[in-house]
Amino acid sequence: MPDVRLPSEIPGKFAAAADFSKEQTSSVQSSLVPAILDIITVTKDDLEGIAATIASTRKLRNCPGVRQIIIDGSGAELQGKIKGLLAGEESLQYHWQQPGGIAQAFNHGVGSARGSWVWFLNGGDQAHPDLEGRFLLQVLEMSQALIIIGDIIYQPSGRRYRHPPLTALWPPLYWVPHPSTLMKRELFERYGLFDPDFKIAMDGELWVRFFSKEMVIDLLSIPLCLYDENGVSNTDISAVNREADRIIVKNFSMLFKIWLRSGNYLYQALKRRLFFT
Q1: Cα–Cα distance, 61 to 119 (Å, whole number)
Q2: pTM value?
Q3: Domains observed in the chain
Q4: Which residues of 193-215 are buried (b: 16+ CB within 10 A; e: fewer)?
Q5: Each residue's pLDDT tens digit, 131-174
Q6: Phi-psi region for residue 214, left (φ > 0), alpha (ψ -120 to 50) or beta?
């Protein structure tokens, strides 16, 4: 189980994922500034959504070391409009990718990332308007965690997401909000990319795989993003549940071992109580 606390370039195997057909890079990103955070944004046929996302990250991208990577799977006509929308934006990189699923697009973004941290903020989702870039970078610099999980505000309802109690954190199938989760890029080299066999719950599969390792995870009860609650993960619950069942089956052996280990703590405590008092 990971240690949960409350309040460069990836070599070799990612080379193919970084080979895209179109690229636009801001001259503001100087090679003298260390890459700290890459915001990976996947979009497809949603000009209004990507416009909102780009506008929300503008002040973050003004901070040295922060960059945004757009993975666009739109058709030719809308692709041109999106590229026009992005013209003149600073610290931004654009890639067009043949549509092949969200997991594949996420993996392409990871392959293009150079920052120590990555943040998956899809088209239609927005960085919280009160999130200051200097504060965020200070958190990333000072934290000893490999994953930092913040809060989200659902849009359009305005409902604020809250982390579950500690007793309900495992397994991490449903509660981890990927739009407010920042991860060290090195995790993908150690433990692998998103599984493209999952069309909706690919992040849940990733959480189970990553969180089963020994690592520090920070829970930050501060809203990091505005989340579009009209996405498929919130509207097609039956499909999400089917994929969650597949995640359990795929990782059953590992989940069972963790469950046994947790039960052993209780057994040892009861044993001490019964035989030594």
Answers
A1: 13
A2: 0.81
A3: 3-276 (3.90.550.10)
A4: bbbeebebbbbbbbbbbbbbeeb
A5: 999 999 999 999 999 999 999 999 999 999 888 888 778 778 77
A6: beta
